[in-house]
## 1
Amino acid sequence: MTIKDINELVIKLQNGDLSVFDEIYYFTKDIVYYTIFIILKDHQLSEDIMQDTYLKALSKIHTYRKKAHFKSWLVTIAKNLALNEYKKRKREMLVDITEDEYLLGSTPSTAENEVLIKQIFTILSDIEKEIVILHSVGDLKHREIAKLLGKPLGTITWTYNQAIKKLRSQI
Amino acid sequence: MERNNLEFKIKESLSERTPDVLDKIKNSSQFKVPEKEEKRFVIFSSFKKMSFSLATVFALVLVLALVFSSQKVTPVIASTITVDINPSIQITLDEDDNVIAVTSINADGEEIIRNIRFKGLTLDRAIEIIIEKANEKGFIVETTDENVILINVNSKNAEIKARVEAQLETKITSEVNKYGALVKVVKGNSGEVTQNQMNSLVAIAKENKISVAKLLLIKKIILLDDTFTIADLKDLSVRELYNIEYNLLNPEEDIEPGNNNGEPGNNDDIPGNNNEVPGNNDEVPGNNDDAPGNSNSSTNGN
């Protein structure tokens, strides 16, 4: 789906047409979920915040302007909600399972995918994970990620390449 | 694996594990699109527009009043601290030891404090954040050697200086220990310098882009061996400077410095103070007021 396509759907949504919501949801759910999961590292909590993100986005849909990529806008909401939740639960969060334990234990999958996910969540730093997910899963361009994370474009490109290099060397 | 193939695999692997919460979203009572705000403006009468103008004027007056009132309560700097891990950071505190500002002295320091709002935090909380970030960025090393952290507290009030120094030393030690690392907190020995001398030290430190604490350690080394210059030493790490000082003080010793087990090289000539000072963990750093999704904001995602 192109930026133009998603913006057309969002305009319909802004005009009250909820029938396009499913398409927007399926187009964005991966990036929204993993943006939250990287911060909270808790499956159930991430699901809850994922729901909150979409409901918040709906309630603020009229404030979305086409200047930003809709996914970036949604990711900002997801990230802020996740960070707020993280701050709230900072002291009481006793979750100590690693991301890969959760991910590997939850859904049956092919061995190759398991290895890859394990590598992503074990060998990459938080910022590398975030950039890889925003780019590979979210299809955001490096330029858009730089704007979203407030970092120079060169840093994003370099970090992404380093992350991919790390993953390739491990697989 | 080919790069494009790897990127595709990443997407595929993660996507198949994304939970589906569509039904839950749709079943929520909040699943609706609110009316466009613009519609409300259309029905405004000229009277309402005038109310708007009045409200704007009132808001302006309120903002000006706030600006003027805030000027009256500008906090007074009671003490200035420099902390040198290798990132060099300067913290200014008010008389209740709350943070007025945190600034970086070098590029590593900038890495540590970037995007964190320290203003109003307690000293303890600010130190927790700084050490946490320093650990994240790899400046705190978990080895048999101690990490050497230089501190310097400058205050016109001797009581405040002593209190802050003690609090700082205790807090830094406990925070570094939390990460399973050892630490030696070395105080910049500036107790006897006059205010004029301190001003001069601050100017030299600023000129060389180092902290006062680091400058004091460099000066100590130069006093022990005048073949060294500030230019030679300013780019060395705190650990390296500490090693040089130790070797100059103990030319016969072959025991590694940084050992605090009562053996030679304990740097006990530098006074320490471990009085327990209660901490405060209530503050949380970071502020995303301008971004959507922040419950403290009235903008997007609120």
## 2
Amino acid sequence: MLKNRLILPGLIWISLFLLIPCVIVFTYSFFERGVYGGIEYSFNLDNYARSFKWTYFKILLTSGQIAFLAAFISVVIGFPAAYCITKANPKYQILLLFFMMLPFWSNYLIRTYSWMVLLNNQGLINNLLIYIGLIDEPIRLLYTKFSVVVGLIYNYLPFVILSIFASLSSMNKEIIEASEDLGGSFFDNLFRVIIPLSLPGILAGFIFVFVLSIGNFITPDLLGGGKFLMIGNLIYDQFLSARDWPFGASLSLILVTIMLSLLFIQSLILTRKKL
Amino acid sequence: MRKLNIIAVSFMLFVWGTAKAELVVSNWDGYSPADIMETFEATTGFKGEMSFHATNEEIMGKVVASKGAGYDVLFVSSPFAEALNELGLLATINHSKIPNMKNLDSWSMNLDFDLGNQFQVPYAWGTTGICYRSDLVSEAPTSWNHLLNPPLDLHGKVTMLSTDRWLLSAGMLSLGFSVNETDPAKLGMVKDVLISAKQNLLSYDDTTFYSKLVSGEAAMAHAWDGWCNYATWENPDVKFVVPSEGSDLWVDTMVILRGSENMDAAHAFINYILDENIGAWTIENILYKTPNKVAMEKTIPGLVDSFPNMGYSAQYLSSMETLKDVGDATKLYATTVADILAD
Amino acid sequence: MKKIYLSLIFCFLYIPILTLITLSFNKSGLPTSWGGFSISWYFDLFDNQKIFKALLNTIIVAFFSTAIAGLLGTLLAMGMELKKSNKYVEATAFIPMIIPDIVMAISLLSFFTLLQFTLGLHSIIISHVVFNTAFVCAVVRTRFKYFDHNVIEASYDLGGKHVITFIKITLPIILPGVIAGSLLAFTLSFDEFIIAFFTSGAGSSSTTLPMLIYSMIRFGVTPEINALSTFIILFSFIIVFISQRAVKGKLLI
């Protein structure tokens, strides 16, 4: 039927170029790493047993905590921004969105280096804080969880703004205006009309930042000084430094399973909130 | 009509994207002269292209997953060359096609991971140690323990290398173990030493530590000797020392992939690299030592005053232990590093 | 009030950019110490053939992967929203976002190798379409949550065929989502490194800009790259400015 014809091209592409390759790699998780990094085809569940070590659980928790913080703060900051853009003159909306994305056409590495310059002890931020008298001596901002979270928020904030904007704009503007016309306080409006309307966008944005952050390995490396091992670094290390594809595959499969369960929870929230 | 355009564009993309050069070499950007492929063609007539990789691990991953498809020559560090060879992906080097081998120091022809240079040819080498600001430390460091257990005033001003082998080797050497140690009990001790060292660190840093030394944010850095020179270049107070417990010898090598369809060109390329002028370029521009003794003799006298580590002799270097692929113990290393970094 | 908030956000987004632009004029090669003003890096940049080739490759990859993903993702979103979708489709549309990059990169390379598929820019495009489709789909779907399906029914009742209905009714409604999703996809693809590295062919004809920049990490990324980023930002800025003038603000929302 029509619905099937529509979803087919996308599904086929993803199935062919992602699901099938990934299934192949995930089956490696049931085998052993060869002595020099190949695969030894002897079926066992050692990799999964190994994954349930406390160290890996700690890494998962740290990553989850950092990713959650980044996603939450991005949504809190991004929501008003998206709302402001929605209220702006329609002629300029796309321009505003475009200028928001423009910084991210520079290179990720360079942007991260710029943050290192801004956050280090002789950097702009410390100098500013000293100048206005808030602190006497530079405080350690770089190579902390703080700098990792800031770096993640910075790189993914536009994603949140874009998805909330997509949810909120024009068509739904009439509903917002109608509600404002009907009186009621600003907060009433906000919590009863605007936020429910934009909930799909908010959830989508939150998920974007969360998943992109949890798999990120460059920001924790550079802005965290390599001191906070996150899941992204761990999996990257298994595949590349240790050349242990089986173990890397088992960690990834566990990660994907956890995330799919979170997705399931999200869709439950959404179906309950449908108007 | 539309469909035809799409097909035409796709075809163009396909051709553009897969335009084949004769020889494909993969290297770190900036590690060889920018115009090397042009001068190579002018000298030998072989056409070629330089491709780039960011780290050893990435090019290893790509070559292992694709069985080396598309590449002919790779620049990789020695443990990776060894692993590639064990995985059966390397071709045997035909010395008769590389007359410039004679430029190489005899010490570099008998490195323990590849006696007689059967599957790799060394390009540059050096050692690892402590790079420090002599004006910011109250006493010059002489031991790995100075790095791992710095005096109180240097807490938070020390960096260590983040690549797993070097991260671990600092701990191993400080306890008197081999850099290729595989005994789990001993690795447990290394882990404890490195976990307590972590408390005093500014960060783990492979790539920007020299700028931290120059700016004074760091006073001591775990460093490769060549890299330390970049800091010395900007600030002559930066000095380098090989700790008393000893250090490792790292070698960056060139290898030829077994599946290469351009064997003659590949050998000609390696031969061209071993030419004394290219060697001299490496020494003067990268400030690394090379086993190319002819190039070293030409250039070192002018550099050794500003950069003392350039004066380390080939004999001295080859007396150090090279990092070898530790086979199954690699998993233990990965777990140990994860334990240290997750703490 | 709104203007102040937006300005604050733009400040946050642009301060690191201003930093990197300033550093492109740094005489010293180090990002942490100012060595004096110099435009020499810009001269180095414009002499550098391989950077511009890589930039062109990146634009090609981003453009085509966004175009294809825009189409596939929108169709996927429509299919999933217009009728109740099952959880397998939901999972399939979600997985590209949650798979760690390195797993996708290695799986794809192994897969391509198994099929003896030649690699090149096209293999990068194929790979990028995978995650871009998922992102476009997710963004476009948000436009459907309060979508009045009756409008489509009405259009069919009035005799409209599928394509006409799509163009005149559905598309205008979901357009902000398609545009936002495409902008996102383009940006993701433009700055993507690890999948591009693994699925590219060997050789400079399939080297993208992120690949080139990351490969400089061993010997120090010089302010030449800052100059390049400045150039890209300025260039895009000018293009948009000109196209705004040309279209005279007739952008449909």
